[in-house]
Design goal:
five-stranded mixed β-sheet, globular, alpha+beta, Aminopeptidase, 137 residues, 20% strand
Length: 137
């Protein structure tokens, strides 16, 4: 397994992975909308995990606004789970955010997704007493 920065050649595989792993996401979170917007930031905070054949088996996006970091679109193909890929992806993003001066990282997980909540707990994330709010523009 290898983690590298996202390249345009990965688009179809990332799109397929996200549709599988995030089937209920709104269109604004789907690859055709999300990836061009992320790439327009030109921040280098989007990685893919590749298997020995060069196929995409995982993704992670991070965000950094100079105040707080965020993790997004963390996905690992079901066929490659429990092999440390998710941990490696998260650590890649955390290392880069730390190198940029970030001292706090947030992420959002659906409360019903207990397995993913537990995964992040094993990486040192804690549930905070916050209310997540959003507004579509």
């Amino acid at each position: 397994m290898q983690i590298i920065p996202y390249e345009d050649r990965h688009f179809a595989e990332v799109d397929r992975l996200w549709r599988t792993e995030f089937p209920n996401d709104p269109e604004r979170n789907r690859a055709p909308q999300a990836i061009p917007k992320k790439l327009a930031q030109a921040d280098g905070l989007f990685w893919v995990a590749l298997d020995e054949n060069g196929d995409v088996i995982g993704t992670i996006m991070a965000g950094w606004d100079g105040h707080r970091g965020w993790l997004y679109s963390v996905a690992v193909a079901p066929s490659h789970r429990n092999a440390g890929i998710g941990t490696a992806l998260v650590n890649t993003a955390l290392d880069e955010l730390r190198d940029r001066g970030c001292i706090k990282v947030n992420l959002q997980v659906r409360s019903s997704n207990k397995a993913v909540v537990e995964f992040y707990r094993t990486l040192g994330f804690v549930t905070e007493p916050m209310v997540s709010m959003g507004r579509t523009l």
